Write the structure tokens for this entry.
Amino acid sequence: MANFNRVILVGNLTRDPELRYTPSGAPVCSFDLAVNRSYTTQAGERRDEVCYITIVSWGKQAETCKEYLKKGRAALIEGRLTQRSWETPEGQKRSKHEVVADRVQFLGGRRGGEEEAAPAPAEDEPPF
């Protein structure tokens, strides 16, 4: 049986992107995306829910995300779902699901009336 792992999200950044570099010098950028969903209950009541997702991008795309994305900006993310596990200094095991971005497209215009920035270039698999 074939497997398929593809995620497409549209939402708004909840914080400014954070750019770091691996010990080998590879750029990695992470930010959180809020994806909203509105629905109506069986009783006719309107409800909203928000899903917060951590996005990780690598390489030139990571540097472009840091340069052009800011808190509140809308973005379309295409990528794959991954799970990361680690142990805290207290010895507790933790894990987190994240989306590794293959493509990041900036939505909406830049603040100040300037034209929209070009989409960040897609990158190959992250170097880990």
